[in-house]
Amino acid sequence: MSLKVENVSLIFGDGNEQVRALDHVSMDLQHGQLMAVLGPSGAGKSSLLAVCGGLQTPSSGRIWIGETEITGVSRSALTRIRQQQVGFVFQQSNLLSSLTSIDQLLLLVHMRGKRPGKADRERAMSLLDEVGMSHRLDRRPSELSGGERQRVGIARAFMMNPSLLLVDEPTSMLDQQRGRQIVELLVRECHDHNVATLMVTHDQGILETADRVVDISDGQLGERT
Amino acid sequence: MPKRKQHNQRRCGREASDWWSCSGIFMSDVDGVSVKAAGCRQVVDKRMMMFIATRDLKFAKGRFLLMGSVVALVAFLVITLSGLSAGLVKANISALMALPATHIAFEGTDHPGYRNTMIERYMWEGWAEQDGVKAMEPLGHTVFNARTEDGKPLELALWGLVENSIIAPLLSRGDNFGGEVENGVIISRGMLEKGVDIGDLIILDRVLTELRVVGVTDEHRAIGHLPIVYAPLAKWQEATYGPPGGPPPGEKLPDIIFDFVSIIVLQLEEGVDTAALDEELETTTLDRLGFYAASIGYESEVQSVQMIQSLLFVISAVVIGAFFSIWTIQRTKEIGLVKALGASNTYVLKDALGQALTVIVAGTLIGLLGTLWFNEQVKDTELPFMLESQTIITSIIMLLMAGFIGAAMSIRRVSKVDPIIALGRDQ
C-alpha cells in the first residue's frame, strides 16, 4: 500500500461558520496505480491533496504514506517526508522563475543536502528526455509554453523516486489537446515508475486513462464502478 | 528496453553516483566546482550553501545590481566619512597625539582650553617636585596670524619649548633652534604644504616678531587644524607677552614674562592624585582623552562625523531591509513551492540570507575600492582625509552588520510562508 487514508476529516472555522472540507474520507492506493478524483470547484479536491501531501493537518483521522504515518508528526518531519516520499505536480506547473528546466530537477537533490553531481544531472536529463523536454534543458520557465512547463513539472515530480505522486488539476491551464497529452504522459510515467498517483481534476476527459476514478462532493468520496 | 529494466536503471542513479564517488579523482560537478572523491566518502564542499539564490542573482541581475550599487554607495560614504573623521582628528590634535605625555595641566578652571590658560612658574616647579612625576615640561602655546616676507598670509600655532625638550620634533631637514640664528624656528609639514621652507621669514602679526625657519619636520603636527611652529620657549614668551616689535632699543624685556607658559606636559606614574595636586597648585589636569577634547572643535567635529556615520548605518540597514522585504514578498509563492517540494525552513533561510550576504559583501567591497581610489586622489591635497586599516575594518564590519540585520529582519518572514500556497490556497 502506498497511500492509506482512514476516516479523515478537515474542518475549517468553528460554530455556525464551520466548513467541512473533507468529511470522513477513507481510501487507499497501490503502487503504480493512478486514481483520478473528480469533482467541481470547492468539492474538497485540493484539501484532499493538501492532507495527503502533509501540507495540511487533518482535523481527525489518520494517513499513511507507505509504512509512515504522517498524521500527528511534527512540521519538520512532514517536510522530510515530502522531500523523500512525495512528488507534486501542480496546477500551474509552479516552476521557479530563475531556474532552467534541468535546475528545477537538480534543486531537489540540493534540498537533500547534496551537491548535484554527474549522476544526478544524467538522471535529470533522462527524465526530461522522457517528457520530451531534452531540447529545452537550459530554458527558464518564461521561455517555455504552458504545456512545456507542465512537462518539466512532471519530470521534477519523479526526480527523487517518490512513492506517492500528488497531481493537482494538471490540465486546467492547457487546451484540450495539450491537456490530453499531459495526462497520457502522467499515466505512462506513473506506470513506468511504479508510483501511486492521486490526481484531482474536474476534467471528465481523464476518466478513460485512470486506473480508478472516484468522485468527490461536499468533502465526501464516492467510487465509480 | 523492458520497462522494469529502465526503471531499475533509473533507480541505479544512486549506484552510479557511488561509483563516481569511489573513483578517487577530481571531477567537475554541474556548477563547475571541483569535488574531490576520496575513498568511498564524497567530500562535499561545505561552501555549498545556495542553489536558488545564485540563480536568482544571475536571473534578476538588474535588480541586484541596483541594490548592490546602493550598498556600494553607502559603503563608499561610510568609509570615506571614517577617513574624513580620522583626517579631522589628525588635523585637529596630531600635535597632541604625538606628545609623550600622560596628562596635561592647565590653569585651574572648569573649562580648560589651550587658548585661555596661563601657567605660572610656581605651578610647574610645584609639579616638578611631586612624587610620581616621571617627567614634566612647561609648554607655550599661542595661535598667531602671520605673514611670509612676500606677504603670504599664514595661520599657525606657535609652541615654545624648553631646551632639550622631550617634545622637540624629529628633524627631517635643517638645524635645531638655539644655533647661530637667534630667532630660528622649526616648522611642521602643514607649513611646508603652505609653501614655507628653510630660510623663509615668518612675521607674526600684531607683535611683529620675526622668526627664521631653520629646520623642518615632515611629520603632521597640528592643533585645531593649525600647523605647529616650534620655537625656543623664551622666543615664544617674547612673542606672546612682550610688546609689539620687541623691547625698545637699549632695553630688555621684563623678567616677569619669562615666568609664564600655557600648559604643563606631564608624564605621571599610575595612581597620582591629580585632583589633590590641582587643588594645591591651582591647575586643572586632564588625561589624554581629556586633553584631546580640550582642543577647540575636536569633540564637535568628531561627533558630527560619527552622527552622520551612524545615520548611514541605519540608512543602509533600512534600505537593504526594504529591498529584501519587497524581494521576499515577490517570491512568497516560490518560497511556498520550494517548501512544498520538501525544503526546510533552514534551507530557505540559508539560501535567502546567503543571497543577501552576497549582495552586501559585494557592494561593500566595491564601495571600499571606490574609497581607496578616492584616497589616492586626495592624499596629496589639503583635505583632512586619512584611511587606516583599523578605520576601514571597523567601518566594513559595522556596515556588514547593519546590512545583515536589515536583511535578516525582512527575510525572517520566509520562515512563515506556508507551503499550502503551492496549491493555490491563501496562507
Task: Describe the overall structure.
The complex is a heterodimer of chains A (225) and B (427). Chain A is 32% helix and 26% strand. By secondary structure, chain A is of the alpha/beta class. Chain A has a single domain (3-223), classed as Rossmann fold (3-Layer(aba) Sandwich). A six-stranded mixed beta sheet of chain A has the order 6-7-8-3-9-10. Chain A has a four-stranded antiparallel beta sheet with strand order 2-1-4-5, covered by helices on one side. In chain A, strand 1 and strand 2 (19-29) form a beta hairpin. In chain A, helix 3 (101-111) packs across helix 4, helix 3 (101-111) runs parallel beside helix 5 and helix 4 (118-130) crosses helix 5 (146-158). The longest helix of chain A is centred in the C-terminal third of the chain and has 17 residues, at 176-192. The radius of gyration of chain A is 17 Å and the shape is globular. Chain A starts with a strand and ends with a strand. Chain B is of the alpha+beta class. In chain B, the strands form three sheets. Chain B has a six-stranded mixed β-barrel with strand order 6-7-13-9-11-10. Residues 1-47 of chain B have low confidence and may be disordered. Chain B contains 13 helices and 16 strands. Chain B is elongated and about 105 Å long. At the A-B interface, helix 1, helix 2, helix 3 and helix 4 of A face helix 1, helix 2, helix 3 and helix 11 of B.
